[in-house]
TrEMBL record:
Family indicated by similarity: Belongs to the transferase hexapeptide repeat family.
Cellular compartments per GO CC: cytosol
GO function term, MF aspect, one: O-acyltransferase activity
Keyword Transferase: yes
InterPro entries: Hexapep (IPR001451), Hexapeptide_acetyltransf (IPR051159), Trimer_LpxA-like_sf (IPR011004)
Pfam family, one: Hexapep_2
Record key words, sorted: Transferase
Gene3D superfamilies: Hexapeptide repeat proteins
Organism from which the protein derives: Corallococcus carmarthensis
Protein name: Serine acetyltransferase
Domain of life: Bacteria
Length: 184
């Protein structure tokens, strides 16, 4: 019986992050002045996409297949995610054309905008609370530090230190990030 319980916990682990994922969307709606932030969040595509990602990960862990949820993400949103190592509080404000390779670790509270590619590879890590802006590419083996803001169309190669703003191709640190700046 203990094995069944451990197996069930592993199977359901990705789903336990749904509450913090949803809370980030509700907070964003509240910040925009939505009269009914929870209702607005439920109508937001990012809420549905993150839910599908979490359910797909849980099914892959438990059954070895996502039962077509990955296909729905690919065909409906052009989102191709090969890793299950995504921390709580994921936010995808514009959930389209996103590729996250196998072996990538995404820390808690990250925000990923549309057109982002994070190449597969061991050691590729996006730190806690980082923001990857539109069209960013993170090359295999790169590390984006906690609280970083990576500007639009940047190409990350190597390491970006924590609490910094990096832009360009290749991405270079231009300044320290300001409090709250890396959490839209």
């Amino acid at each position: 019986m203990l094995l069944l319980t451990e197996s069930a916990h592993a199977y359901l682990e990705p789903l336990r992050f749904l509450r913090s994922d949803g809370a980030r969307v509700v907070d964003a709606m509240r910040a925009r002045g939505a009269r009914f932030p929870t209702a607005s969040a439920l109508a937001d595509p990012s809420m549905w996409v993150v839910g599908l990602l979490r359910m797909s990960a849980a099914l892959r862990r438990g059954l070895g297949t996502s039962l077509g949820l990955s296909t729905v993400l690919r065909l409906g949103f052009h989102i191709d995610v090969w890793t299950d190592d995504i921390g709580p509080g994921l936010r995808l404000p514009h959930p389209f054309n996103i590729v996250i390779g196998d072996g990538v670790e995404i820390g808690p509270g990250c925000t990923i905008l549309h057109g982002v590619t994070v190449q597969r590879g061991a050691g590729t890590r996006i730190g806690r609370g980082a923001v990857l802006a539109n069209g960013t590419t993170v090359l295999a083996g790169s590390r984006v530090g906690d609280g970083c803001l990576v500007g639009a169309a940047s190409v990350v190669r190597g390491r970006i230190p924590a609490a910094s703003v990096a832009v360009g191709a290749p991405a270079r640190v231009v300044r320290a990030s300001r409090p709250g700046e890396a959490a839209p």
